[in-house]
Amino acid sequence: MRYMACFDMDGTLIEVKSSWEFIHEILGTEEEARIYRQMYERGEIDYRRWAELDVSSWRRRDFSEVLRRVDSIRLMENSERSIKMLKDSGFIVGVISSGLNVIADKICERLGMDFCKSARLLLEGNEVIGLAEDLPPDEKGSVLEEVARGYGIPLTRVAFVGDGDSDLSIFEMDLGLKIAFRPRSERIVRLADHVVHDLLEASELILRWSKGAR
């Protein structure tokens, strides 16, 4: 039976900590983003409404500069070697991210991922016209469960690598292996089986775990 390794994207596979903030900085919409974030943090709106409002600040803006600069996003050190190591060993490897598809799809293509789940913007030419689909952090766990089921892989044969509170719903699951990479959250540190600061170390741990689980 096969194994699966799943990765968060922002701050894990790429150096960008937030793909949403990356876009706000390019388009100069940081002030709107700050207001909407504060509304969410005060509990005035839920995550879905926050995502909709964030995207509304980009609506009908020229997105060509964002699309151009996506290609220059730096992969996290050793991400390519780490993913190749797992794929060469027969793993199904992919991404589950609350980040945005305009970045996630490119990163997944560069790394040769088997699956790529993220929030999805609706584009018309070079303009954003809305949010086609969001992926709230508290739903990442159910998305992972659905993906694993689709490949016929039990959760006990799934490893996950992530870095922050947005990954909490996955770290709370009963997975085979949970790795915190350069963690920005004490909560996931407490839930992780290992804490690492190099993606190669993460892949080595995953391979060692899979051999011991057979």
UniProtKB/TrEMBL annotation:
GO terms for molecular function: L-phosphoserine phosphatase activity; magnesium ion binding. The keyword Amino-acid biosynthesis applies. Its cofactor is Mg(2+). Keywords: Amino-acid biosynthesis, Hydrolase, Magnesium, Metal-binding, Serine biosynthesis. GO terms for cellular component: cytoplasm. Its EC number is 3.1.3.3. One of its GO terms (biological process) is L-serine biosynthetic process. Pathway: Amino-acid biosynthesis; L-serine biosynthesis; L-serine from 3-phospho-D-glycerate: step 3/3. The keyword Nucleotide-binding does not apply. Pfam families: HAD. PANTHER family: PHOSPHOSERINE PHOSPHATASE. This is phosphoserine phosphatase. It comes from Korarchaeum cryptofilum (strain OPF8). The lineage of its organism: Archaea, Thermoproteota, Candidatus Korarchaeia, Candidatus Korarchaeales, Candidatus Korarchaeaceae.
